[in-house]
Amino acid sequence: MQNHRWQAPAATLANIARLDQSETLAVLSGQQAGFLGGPSLTVWKVLSTIYLAQALEAKGCPAVPVFWMASEDHDFEEVRHTTILDATGNLQTFTYPTQPLGRPSIGSIVLDDSIEALLQQLEMALPHTEFTATLCQNLSASYAPGHTWCDAFARWLHHLFAPFGLVLVDPRDEQLYRLTQPVLETVIHRTPELIASLVKQAQQYQRSGQPVQVQVTPNSTLLFLEVDGNRTALLQEGNRFWLKSAPERTYTASDLVHILRQEPLRLTPNALLRPVLQDVLFPTVAQVVGPAEMRYLCQSQVIYESLGIPAPARWARVSVTLFENRHAKTLSKLGLTPESVYRGPQELARQAMTKLADSRTLDCFREVKATFAAELDRLKQSLRESDPSLAEALDRGREKIFYQLNGLEQRFLINQAQRHATMLRQLERATAALAPFGKPQERVLNILSFLVKYGPQLVTHSYHQLDFSTSEHQWLSPVPVGRDKSEAAGLAPR
User: Fold this and answer.
1) pTM (2 decimals)?
2) Most CB contacts within 10 A, which of 27, 386, 394, 486?
3) Does residue 402 form part of some domain?
């Protein structure tokens, strides 16, 4: 059993047993197996899944949280990096160094010895707190040489969510695939019909101005085939299928059915078919999804209807930024809102300096420029009436005047910035933590950045503090209410 192999906690094994009972439903979500757990949005998606399952339980409907690891995906470049905040508050990205041959499914990749050196580098980069050693030991136990990419990911998730009974699924399992075989055979034989319906749907979306998340053409299919270690899309016309990357390699529907029966792991679904297969395997009452998934599930509705499979409800995951008190204080001192961090570091620094700089001098600059502009406009109007040739010369002179004034103002701000360097460094750290690389924190930063400071209780604390009923973005303090910031380890750089 998969979860036994991943050292699943007792709560998970109990939930697996409950899934054997006919009245038990599944609340399902999924994600790519990101390196060292991936960006923190994975945590928020899992917690949303757990919440919904527990909410159904409270209403008398037995439900189990299930997380589907996208082990069939072949975009290794997208998942082999992870980013943390180091001990100085700067961003550091760690990349698994070994590239697989070809483009295999991620689930088939096995960690080699290079993972040990990388984890040592990670431990050196993280803040040194009372939690660092244990955190890194647990991470090393999950991400050990010889573990597959998804086995390591699964072990780490079981460690993070041990109290919650999360059930994990790796679809690269021959027993699971054989359970979906009848549906996949139907899809193979009905591919032209299914694709025609999806193309028609996409055309309707385009006419109404709606985005099409997954592009579909008349030659598309819903399947990938792994050949010589490369997972590649299949294309089709009538009863003839071929590899997108090698059109000379062709197959009939019967050929694909034969592969499905003999080597089921070679034939895998695309993003539109995958949720349908999930709901064939599990009694799914709801899928917890992000914004992009919500859009492609709307496209998948055509497949559900064509195959006569009931589509589950959709529940949006929470969207979260962990907002440390020190960063909240920095922004407050500068008169900035949390959302202002998305304006970019240069614009943010400029806004900060207008707050920090001598306001009387800045007001004087504004007044002088406004006065110059008004008087030059008055002079230009007079010249147009008496000597139009000089009006154009005045425009050139105006540009030089304002160039000099703006340059002087910029030099003033630079001098002021040097006087307020400490506050600006604090702003840089806040920006790195809240909007790393200008993107939402949940899409970039690994939760390790906060687990090392606040300990394993951070996951449970977040679960109890978040509002899972809202679609509004939430700015969550990682420090439990009533606990002073100074009690949380590791807030000061080493």
Assistant:
1) 0.85
2) 27
3) no
pLDDT for the residue 334? 87
Residue 259 CB contacts under 8 Å (≥ 6 apart), including other chains: 225, 251, 266, 267
**Nearest Cα to 250, choosing from 259, 258, 240, 260?**
240
Structure confidence at residue 356 (pLDDT): 66
What is the residue range of 121's domain?
A: 1-211+270-319+440-494
> What are the Cα distances from residue 401, in Å, to 43, 104, 175, 367, 387?
55, 62, 77, 14, 21
Does residue 185 lie in a domain region?
Answer: yes
The per-residue pLDDT for 70 is 93
Residues of the chain with confidence (pLDDT) below 50: 482-494
What percentage of the chain reaches a pLDDT higher than 70? 95
Buried-state track 145-168, b at ≥16 Cβ within 10 A, e below 16: eebbbbbbbbbbbbbbbbebbbbb
User: Is 106 contained in some domain?
Assistant: yes
Exposure class string for 6-16: b at 16+ Cβ within 10 A, else e = bebbeebeebb
Compute the C-alpha angle 459/147/1, nearest 5°. Answer: 75
Q: What is the CATH number of the domain that holds 460?
A: 3.40.50.620
Count of structural domains within the chain: 1
Strands 63-69 and 25-31: parallel
Domain assignment present for residue 120? The answer is yes
User: Do residues 171 and 71 make contact, with C-beta atoms less than 8 angstroms apart?
Assistant: yes
Q: What confidence tens digit (pLDDT) does each residue in 276-297 have?
A: 999 999 999 999 999 889 988 9
